[in-house]
Design brief:
The chain is mostly helical and 185 residues long. Among the domains are: 6-71, no CATH class; 98-143. The protein is 51% helix and 12% strand. The protein has helices at residues 6-12, 50-57, 69-82, 94-108, 122-129, 133-143, 151-181, and strands at 16-20, 23-29, 36-41, 109-110, 115-116. A hairpin with a 2-residue loop joins β1 (16-20) and β2 (23-29). The longest helix has 31 residues, at 151-181. The structure holds zinc ion.
């Protein structure tokens, strides 16, 4: 006689059923590694659905073919091993870097004097934010204005030019005098 009705077997699947010494032995076989897991049920025949649920609760994946918990753990390990790869090279957030560069220009560039404060420069902002120096220059020119020379520098440049003109003038007088008097220059 049939120990289990077809319907019972169907509802208990993918576990296979047998009887041993009066107990129901339900067995699950891993489709991936072939490992077996047994559940010995003493006493009355339980509702068939409890059998697959028992294995599912123990960590078996029964969505398609039965896969044991250790095979699933191995599967999960792989993505974790792969994951660190992209992490050493975090994607450069260009937008965030541009915002930072923009903020730095705003904080350190003095529009009326046309000069950076606190030792800042286009180059330093580019270096600190990882943005290209051309981008910083253009942004500064467009939104804040051109770099201007410090007034002292402009003043000294004028003094130098004046002094050079004076030297030229004296040299020319010297040459004229020598020529007029017939002296060797
Ligand atoms: Zn397995």
């Amino acid at each position: 006689m049939a120990i289990f009705a077809d319907d019972y077997i169907r509802r208990a699947s993918p576990a296979s059923l047998s009887i041993h010494c009066g107990a129901i032995i339900s067995r699950m076989a891993c489709a991936s590694c072939g490992a077996n897991d047994e559940w010995r049920i003493n006493g009355n025949k339980p509702p068939a659905e409890i059998i697959p649920r028992h294995f599912a609760n123990k960590g078996w994946n029964l969505h398609r073919r039965p896969v044991c918990p250790s095979c699933q753990a191995k599967k999960k390990e792989k993505p974790i091993m792969i994951k660190p790869k992209p992490e050493p090279a975090p994607t450069f957030d260009a937008k965030a870097a541009r915002r930072e560069a923009h903020d730095l220009i705003a904080m350190t560039f003095n529009i009326p004097t046309g000069q950076y404060n606190d030792g800042y420069s286009d180059e330093r902002i580019a270096k600190e934010t990882g943005i290209g120096v051309d981008w910083v220059k253009h942004r500064r020119e467009d939104e804040f204005g051109p770099l201007k020379e410090p007034d002292e520098l402009t003043a000294m440049r004028k003094q130098l030019a004046d002094a050079a003109a004076k030297v030229e003038s004296i040299k020319s007088q010297f040459d004229q005098l020598c020529a007029a008097k017939g002296w060797a220059a």
